[in-house]
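Entry 14: structure prediction run for Glycolate oxidase iron-sulfur subunit. Input pasted below.
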Amino acid sequence: MTGGPGTGPDPKLIGDCVHCGFCLPTCPTYVLWGEEMDSPRGRIHLMGQHVEGTPITPEMAGHFDACLGCMACVTACPSGVRYDRLIEQTRVAVEREHERDPQERAVRGLVFSLFPYPSRLRLLRPGTGLARQMAGFLGRAHPSLGAMAALAPRVPRRQRLPRLVRARGERRAVVGMLTGCVQREFFPQVNAATARVLALEGCDVVIPRQGCCGALSVHSGREDQARRLARRTVRTFERAGVDTVVVNAAGCGSSMKEYADLLGKRPVFRVVDLSEFLAELGPAAERHPLPMTVAYHDACHLAHAQGVRAQPRALLGAIPGLELREVPESAICCGSAGTYNIFQPEAARDLGDRKAAAVAATGAELLVSANPGCTMQISAAMRRAGREIRVAHVAEVLDASLRGVSLGRDA
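Run finished. Output C-alpha cells:
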C-alpha cells in the first residue's frame, strides 16, 4: 500500500504516467466535470508537485478527496500505471499533513469509529427505516449525515452463522469465510447464502469470530487503523487453519489481496472472491431453473481492482431460465466507493442517478451486485428516481437455484 511511515506517493510510480489521456473517459469525476485536475493524470501531476516539495493545499486535498478510487483508470491505462497504489499512498499523506475543518473531522471521526466495528453497527439496525425518513432533516445539519441516512437499507432479521458449516455430500475443499462489517450487520442474508452455496458445492466453511478487514481505512488513507485491523484479520484466519479465505464483498476482497503491500508480509492463506472461487472449483450441485431477467452490476473493486468480470457472469449464465442483461456504461462507478457517498454526497448522488438510469434501461426484474456498498448506493438512487428494483447478491441467486426455491426464501 505505502512505502512506509512518513512517505507519500512513490516518485517511480508517478514517472510511469505518460499523460496519454486514455484514462479520461473512464474516470467518473472527469466524466462529470471535465476538469483536468479531477482526472487520474491531473491528480498524478499534483502528486508530482507534492513529491517535489509543494505542501498539500486545501485545493489539492479537494482534488484527491474527489477521487473515488474506482481503479477504472488502471484497467484503461496502456502504460500499466499503478494509480491504485498512488492514490492510497497520497491519501495517507493527506490524512497526515492536511488540516481538515472541525466539522469534517467530526464526521470522519464518526464514520471511522462506527463502520469498522460490527458490534457498533448492530446498534443502528433497528433505526434504519427511521433514518431514511429523517434523511432530509439530517442533511440540513450536514450533507454527509443526510447521505448516510438515505443509504440505510431495509435490514432483514439477523441470521446467526455457526462456526463451521459442513459440506453437503463429498467434501471437495475447506475454506474460511469473511463475514465483513456492513455485509454482516445490514445484509446477513448474503452471508447465510454464501455459506449455504459453498456447502452445497462441497466445502467445509470455517467462520471464525472476526472483525473488520481494514478495507474502508485503507481506501481513506487511515494507515495505522488499516494495519491494526488487517493484522487482526490475518491472525484470525491463520489460527483457523485455512489456506483459502472466500470473500463476498468486492472492497474487502480487493484490500485483503493487497495485505502483503500493507503489512510487508504475505499471509499464509490466499484470498479469493466467491465467484472467483466457485469458477475455479467447478459445479457439483444441480442448478434448478430461475425464470427471470437479471442485470449484473460490476463492482469497481471486483472488476477493476481484482479483474473478476467473467466469473460472476458465467455463474449466473449457467442457471437455467435466467436471462442475463448488461448494464450500459458498466465500467463507470455507481458512486459508492466505500465511504465516498458519505464524504462526497453531491458527486456520489450524480453518479448514482446515472447508474440508476442505466440499470432501468435494461428492463431487468433483478439487479445483481457483489458489494454491499453498491447495493445500498444503487437502491437509494433507484428510490429517488421512483424506479425501485430488487437488488440481490450473486450468492443469493445461486443459493435459490441450488436449493430450488424462490429467490429470497430463508433457509
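Notes: The longest strand covers residues 173-177. Will compare against the previous run tomorrow.
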